[in-house]
Amino acid sequence: MNKKTTQKIAFITFRALGLLVVAILLGILGFIIYNGIGVISWEFLTAAPTEGMTAGGIFPAIVGTLCLVVGSMVFAFPLGVMSAVYMNEYAGNGWVVKFIRVMTNNLSGIPSIVFGLFGMALFVNTLKFGDSILAGSLTLGLLILPLIIRTTEEALKAIPDSYRTGSLALGSSKLQTIRRVVLPMAFPNIITGLILSIGRVSGETAPILFTVAAYFLPKLPTGIFDQVMALPYHLYVIVTSGTDIESSRPIAYGTALVLIAIVLIMNLLATSLRKYFGKKVKTG
Fold this sequence. Notes:
mainly alpha
């Protein structure tokens, strides 16, 4: 078998595998849309659930999910970025950085339900936050912290050292170089970690089960110490509770469709932000 034939076979194989992945994704989306689109209405999106969540809408769950996503990002994103900056720009390649990387890798492999138990023990019980948005956001923030650290570190490594050397040669301090040269250039790729984190936080059920999620709470939160409903837990309750499964199944598919739409919208906004900063880097 000559090189051309081998290359052609490899190309066809990789292309078929790529199309298979796309087909699987479209199949999942098509299944959810087909079964859930009939439930979607203005009332479904803006009303509170009624009759044991077998009727009404999911607006409190939508608001709760958005609160948890924003809260977890406010905690995890700055901390993760600053940790990555320290590891890549200040700490060098000593044993401290190696130890942090090993711990970060181990942290990213811990099951999410363990984070939920830890969050309940620390934030809910020890720090007396109770079942609240604050406790849930901090727990989810810990869950996505390793992802943000690794993606930010890779983004910083992609910046050539010549930019750092040139900035220092012009008289800038280390901090000024990082703040005005390295971070602006790396920020479009740092947003990638934000996008991945949003997707994971939006769909997590186990951590919020122990720290914030309410079974049935048809009202909006008034502060960070309130419990909230959330779309993943709401979906879980609808499918597994003792309610009439057949009558609540369309609501479950509708909830799943709304959750997917929220993740998609957030990802599109983050991608737009990434493109915006990417253009600023190129034109600047």
